[in-house]
Design brief:
The structure is a homotrimer of 266-residue chains.
Chain A (H helix, E strand, L loop, with lengths): L5 E6 L7 H12 L4 E6 L7 H11 L8 E5 L10 E6 L2 E6 L5 H6 L2 E6 L15 H14 L25 E3 L2 E9 L5 E6 L13 E4 L2 E4 L13 E5 L4 E6 L4 H5 L6 E5 L2
Parallel strand pairs in A: 1-2, 1-3, 3-5
Antiparallel strand pairs in A: 4-5, 4-6, 7-8, 8-9, 8-14, 9-13, 10-11, 10-14, 12-13
Helix pairs in contact in A: 1-4
């Protein structure tokens, strides 16, 4: 965990302004050799929960030590802290507003430091764009191998701001969770992971109830059902999702983030 | 055709989820030195024909040996094959569902192999995201110079899945084709290439009939006509297109993919 | 100012077609070592003023010598010139249609040359896509250290096409400007920079009038006011903007580019 070759960016900036490019210019001014990957800049304005979910999910696909920068920051310019965090073999730089809460809920934290040493920042620091003026330059210096401890004092993991996450409840012979995320295909991804199923469960006999519908059995892939048919499967991040083969499940079935999903074991 | 410095990505994933970034993370974990270029992630969900058209068009602008990865894959998880293909001095990795059909219709095929050797894949292989778990790692290994034959058995070009393409018909002194693609400006690009015109044709005297309109003569550039005026010209990929100078022809004239276009030679 | 490691792209091409990727392929065919940064491809079709504003703003965030390519070009194929320009420690390649007007209005020009030497261009040159066939290859050659003077004859800065820019007027004890730009958050950015305020002005006592509203005092950051409240502050590029904390000011207050904004000093 010294030099990083990759820095990723996740923001709510959109791509119609030059904000994202300005962050990249600042990073590459400091470390011209690093590769920058856009995760997404289409987070809905100030949707911290959505960005937190992405931070928790992406670690597995990136090389060890990759630095992930997340900027969804309605408190920019106030006293909310900015953090550098090690977890899941990756590194993260983000405001302390819940963005790293899901990640730290699922993974043991490594070192965590608060960004306070302004000699690593871009000057002058604007009051409205800490992504460009603090987070980007710190990420770039970190990618050059500067030790995390130099950016500011250590922070106890228990002090990091978290978001309440809907829990999965077990009621009789059923599991009750909720939809956390609709992806761009309209697939409805729940908070129920494969590990939460009883080990003896026969997936072909599970009934899934959602939005007044009942789906029989858990499929392996979308094309297990005819085009337009609804189905449930464990998706690429290991969470149960409700989908339509070649269709938009969220729109067709009227599902939104927060919709309850219920699994019944026979 | 050994080492590749560039890998391009064309998908229907959109950029609001982390799917595209996960593919990039996998590629760069295997080959940190390769440069990844986004062609587009805005293919309409499951619009194989649109992606096939892009695969057929982009070869000319990229260095020899560039690897183009296309993922529009409604059959993900089923028995549909995945292919590595050499053609037009470029390399392609995609599902065998028509995505490479137009390309192979226009260019002689080099070697074609089916991806079956799972030691080149990411483990565990999910049932819903072969782009990340099979296509991305194979493209990355290929870019390092691994021979195509190691990815799986050879495939006969005649066995590759193709899409029926609308043909241009010659009727009397006219050519009849159709609009294949509307671009983001609303320019309406047909399947009629410059080579299909009779060599003696006087382009200033050709009449173009489309959507109940008649356009006299083929222009050289959009600004040949006044702002708002309709015109026809051969665009940057050599195909006849109908456009409005500084306007949106598709919207103004009611043109869609499939709309007939007719050229009359006097 | 010889070798450039970075080239940025700003266009009105969108990302649903392969046009942007074709430009990148051409650049990297000539200079495989350069890094390409997307500023935005979401300029509204032919909105030269918006792209000109970005060109004037981005210089500060990029390393010296970065080459910025801008393509918003309704006159493509006509006799309008194409320019290579040095200014603000950066380099620019763009049509001579006003795209570089704001930049040159704010910064002293270095050398300016018209692109006429077609041996630096991609052949054949299409009539509709000079971004790919002229601007991209010239930018790539320039990044390799080719001297600007080899691309064509020098141009006098006074001959570069500019756009009339709304001026800030001082009337009695007030300043009158206008909104130039709405960003993706709905923040309304005016043409009034901090430098235009009287040095003795007490920012907490300034009144801002816009769209029938009156805002008291200039804030430091968005969160200075409660969620949903309107406020004014100097944003990350030093210009006065009107915003809503965690909201969309343009939509809520009915502000558009051109809306008058008035500052009253007490």
């Amino acid at each position: 965990l010294k030099i990083a070759r990759l820095i990723t960016l996740t923001t709510d900036f959109g791509m119609s302004d030059s904000y994202v490019a300005q962050m990249k210019g600042v990073v590459l001014s400091i470390n011209p050799g690093v590769t920058i990957i856009d995760v997404t800049h289409s987070i809905a304005p100030q949707d911290i929960r959505r960005a937190a979910s992405i931070m928790a999910d992406i670690a597995g696909a990136f090389p060890e030590g990759t630095i992930h920068v997340a900027v969804v920051d309605p408190g920019v310019g106030t006293a909310r802290g900015l953090l550098a965090v090690e977890a899941a073999g990756q590194r993260f730089v983000a405001p302390d507003n819940g963005l790293l809460g899901l990640l730290l809920g699922r993974n043991p934290a490594g070192r965590i430091h608060r960004l306070s040493e302004d000699r690593f920042w871009r000057k002058p620091v604007s009051a409205t764009f800490h992504g460009r003026d603090i987070l980007a330059p710190v990420a770039a210096q970190w990618s050059l191998g500067i030790d995390i401890a130099r950016f500011g004092p250590p922070v106890d993991p228990d002090q990091v701001f978290t978001l309440a996450r809907p829990v999965v409840r077990r009621v009789g012979n059923s599991l009750i969770g909720e939809i956390e995320l609709i992806d761009a295909f309209g697939n409805c991804i729940s908070n129920i992971s494969r590990a939460e199923l009883p080990t003896e469960a026969d997936v072909s006999r599970i009934r899934i109830e959602i939005a007044g519908r009942c789906i029989a059995g858990i499929s392996v892939c979308y094309a297990d059902r005819p085009p337009g048919a609804e189905l449930a499967l464990f998706g690429s991040s290991g969470l149960l999702e409700v989908a339509l083969n070649q269709g938009d499940a969220a729109q067709s079935l009227g599902i939104e983030p927060g919709t309850e999903i219920r699994l019944l074991f026979s």
